[in-house]
Design a protein that fits this description.
It contains ten helices and six strands. It is an alpha/beta fold and 256 residues long. It folds into two domains: 42 residues, no CATH class; 209 residues, Rossmann fold (3-Layer(aba) Sandwich). Helix 9 links the parallel strand 5 and strand 6. The radius of gyration is 19 Å and the shape is globular. The structure holds zinc ion (ZN) (2 copies). The site of one zinc ion has 8 residues, from helix 2. One zinc ion (ZN) binds next to helix 3.
Length: 256
């Protein structure tokens, strides 16, 4: 099975040009895009009602949704291109775990448009770093690829001032207390001078709990950054997180 997976991956990366087939349905696609027109129309764009602060899809327009009120106080504003549901989950998974680095171009261009639309006007972009060993294993850092693409389009430089010094567990499965504990001391700010009174944008693939961005934004502000924004490919809808939290609390209290 491993051999088949390897061959498939090898063929996709080295023999077939990713621009010849749709990354969602796999059908032939010769218009130069990574996603065919039909699939593009069905992607869950996050362009309807969103929380003013964290940019998550919400059911009613609100200034702060239930999730960001407690999780994202140091981030001044966040926006994401897609809602993290449906086919976009598959695309992000292959982008992160299956070497589909070419999707950085596709996602990065959409993030650039959103960056401009929201007038982020930043002095620098900061990607979420990976721990050295983890990055070596994957062979790339998807957040850096996104930041490089956005930087090449907007001419906003990348600030190499953050480093991940500790391996962390996946955030989504932990409760708030464990999340913060998991992230404690995970990121280190270097070259503080570059941040003084600057507006920066954190670039990442998905906003799930928002805790990672919060920890990073807090550290950046402590190091002198004036405004910290967050731009991601996708974010979990606010009500999904609220429901999950409720379920977890009920489980904890023994009511389910
Ligand atoms: Zn398609
Ligand atoms: Zn919110």
């Amino acid at each position: 099975m491993k051999v088949v997976a390897f061959l498939k991956r090898f063929l996709r990366l080295h023999v077939f040009n990713p621009e010849w087939s749709c990354s969602v349905c796999g059908e032939e696609n010769f218009d130069g895009g990574f996603v065919c027109k039909k699939c593009e129309q069905n992607l869950p764009y996050n362009d309807k009602i969103v929380c003013e602060h964290c940019g998550r899809k919400t059911e009613i327009r609100e200034e702060y949704c239930v999730t960001c009120k407690e999780n994202m106080v140091s981030v001044d504003k966040a926006r994401s291109v897609f809602s993290y549901e449906g086919t976009i989950r598959k695309l992000i998974t292959i982008f992160k775990y299956d070497n589909a680095r070419y999707l950085a171009e596709y996602f990065g261009d959409k993030m650039t448009l959103l960056y401009l639309k929201n007038c982020f006007n930043a002095d620098g972009l900061i990607y979420v770093p990976m721990e050295e060993k983890a990055e070596r294993k994957r062979g790339y850092n998807q957040s850096r690829l996104l930041a490089e693409r956005i930087s090449s389009k907007t001419e906003v430089p990348i600030f190499e001032c953050l480093e991940k010094t500790k391996k962390t567990l996946r955030q989504a499965r932990l409760n708030r207390k464990d999340r913060l504990k998991n992230l404690e001391g995970a990121f280190k700010v270097k070259k503080r001078k570059i941040l003084k009174d600057k507006t920066v944008v954190i670039i990442d693939d998905v906003t799930t709990t928002g805790a990672t961005a919060e920890v990073i934004a807090k550290a950046l502000k402590k190091s002198g950054a004036k405004l910290v924004y967050l731009l991601t490919v996708a974010s979990t809808p606010a009500f999904n997180i609220a429901n999950k939290n409720k379920q977890r609390d009920r489980r904890k209290n023994g009511t389910i």
